[in-house]
Design the sequence.
């Protein structure tokens, strides 16, 4: 009897930290790959690979050559970059938004064993570590969009700071598409309207419940989204109370303060029920300076036919338990070639894969 109890204890204590995660009926989650500091995801189904960025110096590649949702191999392609968080794949090139520059690697139609010297497309990003981890994605217009965070908690902005840039794909000259953005580390494009939908992290040290984190819609370029005059939503910052306000674009959804919304993804695969093609998934990385932690989950925001948020609901929860212990911090989301959902976790060094069975 004692031997049986000992074996049971070992099995329970060695069970994966994600085993207690809660998903809707019919969904399951498993580990796709182990990647140190896994952050942004860039699927390249043409070569059976998923590229994974980080806030360190490395980019990894997960190989799933037959698209069956099982990783065949993991390769560290390079380990000499400066915060290669922002990555995007298009037409045989891997684009990397480092802290200080935009580069690309020509890969073609063959999976690389390592990355060679890159082509430098732009080298004038604000080279500051605070909010220096970029996010990158190609838009439906062919432009490459890259976020540039504010180099502070609350401060005046200069140049590219606190913006989302759009790079022209022929000249690689950037223009400011959205401004007044404190720190967006996740965005996607509405498949119906083509609008840019992006998350933004509210200011710290304004209280446990203020300001709200944001989900924003940018139907065109040139709009201002409030920072630093607003810490988030319509919550004013004391540092800029006396300043003249720009015309502020309010968020389409206010998250709970400090949930830290990062990755944003419109699911358009065929594997999940139709309901999940009528909204957006958001990875909530979780609070770091709140007295009672919040976030640490994947939420789903259902949209109506006019693109307005109907409700927010938990899609995956359980990384934060009732005792406030944390077992994971989701970062980014994307759809793999077979319609399953990939999720990165930089705390547990994992990429998960989510499936659905009727």
Sequence:
């Amino acid at each position: 009897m004692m031997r049986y109890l000992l074996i049971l204890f070992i099995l329970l204590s060695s069970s994966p930290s994600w085993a207690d995660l809660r998903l809707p009926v019919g969904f399951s989650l498993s580990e796709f790959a182990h990647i140190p500091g896994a952050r942004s995801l860039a699927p390249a189904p043409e070569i059976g690979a998923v590229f994974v960025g980080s806030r360190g110096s490395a980019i990894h590649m997960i190989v799933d050559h037959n698209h069956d949702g099982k990783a065949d191999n993991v390769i560290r392609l390079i380990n000499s970059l400066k915060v290669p968080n922002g990555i995007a794949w298009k037409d045989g090139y891997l684009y990397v938004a480092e802290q200080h520059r935009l580069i690309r690697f020509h890969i073609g139609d063959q999976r690389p064993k390592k990355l060679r010297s890159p082509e430098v497309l732009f080298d004038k990003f604000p080279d500051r570590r605070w909010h220096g981890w970029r996010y990158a994605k190609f838009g439906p217009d062919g432009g490459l969009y890259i976020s540039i965070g504010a180099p502070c908690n609350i401060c005046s902005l200069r140049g590219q700071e606190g913006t989302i840039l759009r790079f022209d794909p022929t000249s690689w000259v950037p223009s400011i598409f959205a401004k007044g953005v404190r720190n967006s580390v996740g965005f996607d494009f509405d498949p119906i309207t083509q609008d840019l939908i992006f998350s933004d992290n509210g200011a710290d040290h304004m209280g446990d419940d203020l300001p709200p984190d944001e989900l924003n819609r940018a139907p065109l370029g040139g709009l201002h989204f409030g920072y630093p005059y607003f810490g988030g939503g319509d919550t004013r910052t004391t540092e800029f109370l006396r300043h003249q306000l720009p015309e502020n674009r309010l968020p389409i959804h206010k998250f709970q303060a400090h949930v830290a919304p990062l990755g944003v993804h419109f699911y358009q695969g065929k594997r999940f029920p139709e309901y999940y093609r009528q909204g957006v998934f958001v990875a909530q990385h979780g609070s770091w300076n709140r007295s009672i932690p919040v976030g640490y989950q994947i939420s789903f925001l259902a949209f109506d036919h006019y693109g307005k948020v109907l409700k927010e609901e938990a899609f995956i929860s359980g990384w934060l338990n009732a005792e406030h212990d944390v077992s994971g911090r989701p970062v980014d989301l994307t759809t793999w070639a077979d319609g399953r959902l990939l999720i990165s976790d930089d705390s547990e060094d994992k990429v998960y894969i989510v499936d659905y069975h009727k």
Q: What stands out?
A: The chain has one helix and 27 strands. The first helix runs from residue 2 to 13. The radius of gyration is 20 Å. The CA atoms of residues 177 and 309 lie 23 Å apart.
